[in-house]
Design goal:
Layout (H helix, E strand, L loop, with lengths): L14 H14 L3 H32 L3 H16 L6
Amino acid sequence: MTPSPETQITASFPPDLYEEIKRISAIKHWPESQAVVLLARLGAKYQKQMEQQWHSTYQAFIGESDPAKQDKLGDEMICAIFGPQAIG
């Protein structure tokens, strides 16, 4: 059996996200499902960019010999993982 090029799923969305789905759907004159796909693709792209940025920061961190610069890079990595509220 040949796999389908697309997979169908059922999902529940928090109200604020559903409002964004409806907004995009209305602006683009798309069905809501197409707006969901757009948001999912944008989210996946953003996640990949954040992972690449973190990896780049990590490489700079381990290659840095200046303790002050290393501290700054370490703070950037902590913020990337835990959010800016993690740094006091």
